[in-house]
Amino acid sequence: MLGFRFRPILAWCVAFWRKPPGEVSPVRTRFEFGILGSTIVHPHGNPLVQADVPRKFRQVLAALLAQPNRRLSFAQLVEWVWTEDEQPPADRKTTGHTYRHRISRLLADAGAVGRLSTVNGGLRVDTDESQIDYYVFRNLLSQARNCRDEKDHECAVDLAEEALGLWRDQPLLDLDTSPARNWRQAVLAEEWLPANLFLLDEQIALGRFDAALARHGEISRRHGFDPRLIRRQLRILHSLSRHSEATDTYLASYRKLRGDGQDAEAQELRHFHDELQRRFESGHPAEPVRIVAGPRLLPPDVAGFIGRADLLRMLDEHTGVAAGRLRASVVVLAGIGGIGKTTLAVRWARRASNRLSAGVLFADLHGFSQLRRLEPGDVVDDFLAQLGYPVEHIVGPAGRAEKLRALLEAGPKLIVLDNVQNSAHVRALLPLFGDCAVVITSRHRLTELAVRHGIPSWTVGPLGAAHGIELLSDRIGARASEVPETLRVLVELCHGLPLALTLVAERIASRPAVPVPALVTQLRDSELLLAIGQDGDSPDGSLNAVFSLSYQALSVEAGRLFRLLGLHPGAEFGVGVAAALAGEGLPATRQHLDELVGAQLMEQAGDVDRFRVHDLVLAFAAGLADGDPEADQAVSRMLDFYLGTALDAHRVAFPHIGLPPVPAEIRGMTIAGNEEADAWYLRERSNLGAIIHSAWIGRTRYGWALPHVAARFMDRFGFYADLVSALTVTAEMLAAQRNPEAVASTLNDLGFFQLTLGDTEPAARNFERALKILAEVDAPTGILTVRINLAATERKRGDRAAATAIYRECLTMARAQGDVVREAKVEHYLGETAAEERRYDVAVGHFERALELREALADTAGQVSTLAERCQIAGARGQYRVADEFAARASVLLATVQDVSAAIRLHTVVAELNLSRRRYADAVESAGLALQLTKQTGLSAAEASALDLLGRAYAAAGEPEQARAVWLLAADIFRRRGRQWQADRLTRRVESLPAAPPIPGARPADITQPGVSLDETPDLL
């Protein structure tokens, strides 16, 4: 079996170097993981039963070692390790941790050079591949081929024998699942057999015919009948003057091939034997004798082919290559231009041809090309020429087509039809191919073939980060090791597109004097990246040229939509905004989007009405849209759609809060309910942010309304940094537009969130500026709102008396204006201020009035906040049953609305309540939930307070090390925010904790960090 080798010695898995028969030499120790099954090979050949290593642990490790340095998800491990008859563990997380800890301990105890880690819920073995015998085998064989190329056959034989000496029995013998069997079958067929054939050829080249015959017999016993082996056997037997035996072998093999219906292979074997016999009879046996299995006029293979293992395996299985016999089949490889479809098809055809000794017919149909498109008749003529039949000897197109059909029926081939434009382009060809295996590449999915004939279409997608980095490293060479951190950046810039990666690598390689980081900075310009390849040395091979061919093949309507989508700020969008950009109805837009999906210029993003464009394709579309006479109107329609939908979502999610004034004709998508409103905002968050930060937002007098409406959702989900950034941009834009009320509203909202983030003085300045503007335009509601926020500013400064005085003035103003929303807020804030001064009876009166008003308003989030404060007061008074009732009511309401501030406050209050009741486990849980929410908001002060609370809960629960870890994290946050006294207080707490031995393997970052109060903060205008 092919095992997996590690150094130094593992106490539980040791094997030995095999010595050639009859050779006496010192034993060299080779160390392998025990994935041989139930036994491990001892240096002296004695099997050792590994009773202390459970079989499943060995199997998991074997699966991981088959793919080192690569993450395997739990689902993938289950497929590799658990057979259909075995029930996989239900608790994936616990099982994953169990296996990681157990195997890691075994590796550590054995001193193995490797590390097992958990990555995104999966497992990965990180190790040098040179420690695994499979990769040592591949490296040795690569060196052997280099020796062969240099005519050093002795060296080639030695290295090939050493490589094949690593094999013992079947690889991964302990695993009997479909992925393991497929891996084993592929490795045996694609690597073990070719390596043995290579060694046979090198032994023949050296004239070692006896050794070659012995090895041939061993290979035949293990692999079975194979025409490639028979041809070499005939050569060896004739070379040993065993001509009669060679003839008998040939006749038996010929009859078997004919009996199995492999007429083409039988004919090839006959030609080979006749030529071989002729050469020996003429006295020139040393001349090379080989028979070509048919035409193999493929484009050059790409050196250092990267990735695509899953697609290669799928092609092998679909075409019968995996089973060792060609199957009549057709499959389409679809993908965007430059994604590597042709490279994949050529790589597969070369491998499959070698494995089956089958001929390959290849044709580039120029479906997306500046060259003339090849029609079916052209392809027929080309294939006949490749098969060696002069076209001029066959009369008429129909006659030539029939001749090709007859030839392929007699000897099926692998056929690659590259660069096909659409289904009609190849419809007339497919009936001619009979039992051939046909692979089609196209930028379209060829839906007609799929629907009418059931032909599968597989999408070739971008390379992952690891494969992209590998491709760049191979092409750049030594310079890659100088700047490893930039390779991932380059892969991200190229978005995994192989053509882009190749062009970038060539640019770097051709400019050795320019530092790679400088080139990376340059390549951040998408226009430059799209233009690379226009060097005048050859036809334009740039991404611009590649994408242009796909664009030119679109219908006029789909091309127009694609061009206008270049105006969209993000790569993902819904069908509604696409319709708005085009100014068309939804049915027509869906039809055009379907065409763009079929052309591989975009894909559906997990939702029937959601689409995603490759970033580089979007950049190309943006270039087309630049200067388009429709651009201004399309952008206006897009802004109207987003604003109209945001307004509708606002009406549903915040029915008690008024909307900014905008024209009545603004329309967008209709939002059905609160849950849909939240989902819409989260889905469009990045697009809304891009619009708010773009120059577009200032194009209309009502553009400022979008950030204000979005601000409500940003507040609900705690995206405060987004809010401050968006409102700062909006305030600058409105000041230039001379829109005083809008400027005041924006300044108030900006101050509100600055106050939330703890930036008190900038917030106060913005409130004063807003108040001054509103006084000039006589806006009583706006003045009331800003005054409420000024009171909150005084509370933040610690002046509760001043805050209370302003709140009372605001309460009078709210009642006079009939503003029930702000009346409820002020009552709540007065209650909070009184509670801070421990005037609980006064506080309860304010909270009761606030709750009554908020219930009438159906303000769910507001009710949660007020009930949380009632819970806190009841707990402070020792009225725990009452406190529980308030907490339960708040929890029920919280489940119906997503409001981060209210949720943080409730969990904080409940944690404090549990601490006072000595329910420490419950306190830890509630504090943890609060901490998780503060992390979502990005509010470092709230996070530090939550950590402080969690630390107190851990300390009270008798877990000093956990308390120590979270308090140190909180102290660090306070210190970075300039609150040294709070940091010092926490440091003293840490020093007062009892000393305890450290928890094995525990780190602060590993601790679940759930804490703490955001006061119900000021009011948005």
Automatic annotation (TrEMBL):
What's one GO BP annotation on this UniProt entry?
A: regulation of DNA-templated transcription
Signal peptide interval: none
Name the record gives this protein: Tetratricopeptide repeat protein
Which source organism? Amycolatopsis pithecellobii
Which portions of the sequence form the region Disordered?
992-1021
Query: Which GO molecular-function terms appear in the entry?
Result: ADP binding; DNA binding
Q: Which SMART domains does the UniProt entry name for this protein?
A: AAA, BTAD, TPR
TPR repeat positions: 744-777, 824-857
Q: Using the record's annotation, list all stretches that form the AAA+ ATPase domain.
A: 327-482
Any Pfam family hit: BTAD
